[in-house]
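Q: Give me a backbone?
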Amino acid sequence: MITINNSLTIPHDEVELTFSRSQGPGGQNVNKVNSKVTLHWDVENSRSISVRLKQRIYSKHSGKINNDGKLVVSSQKSREQHQNRTDCYQKLRSLIEDALKTKKPRKRTKPTKASKLRRLDHKKRRSQIKAGRQGRYEY
């Protein structure tokens, strides 16, 4: 089970892990060991999350979802496969936590009396500056 928070967990059978060779330096070991981990999670057919959460994941993280409707996360930070696997789980956890956050609705407010007076004072000063420019140039 991948624990997201107190009320949400994802079973391991919903997640598919694939392993491949990592990029970058690493000497002779890099050509022999499959240390890169790619996690595929079928969001559309997941039984552990609600429809509303699925919609939020699709809207917020559509770039990480492939044509099959699977969320794809990969990691190749470490030379160790188990560390990359842990990193993939952490990335998945943070993506879902991000989708769980709801945006606080904005309360409409009225401008204060002082801000209205400042605005009118500024307009008056600008008007006087521009009026002072009138009639300066005679041809």
